[in-house]
Amino acid sequence: ILNRDELAILELRGGTHLVLFRAEGKPEAGPVSVFDFMVEDIEAAHAGMQKAGLHVTAICEDNLAGHLWFEVTDPDGYVLKVFSSHTGGRPV
Fold it and tell me: Which of 6-15, 44-53, 68-77 has the lowest mean pLDDT?
């Protein structure tokens, strides 16, 4: 769905995305996994996580891909990104 010099995004059925970023140099050693979550209602997800007592950032806009997003810190201290869907109303 997006092909630029700095990144490419492939959207699969069911809302799964493969996002590839162009590396600036060699990646750091060690295991790294990044998981982002997409939700149909970003405001409700943000409010629900905040009400549950989780630390959430403000909702921001991603000018590159057109998503709204925020970060949430889980109880173990891991930071996760939550993005709005841009699938035109289809369920994620």
Answer: 6-15
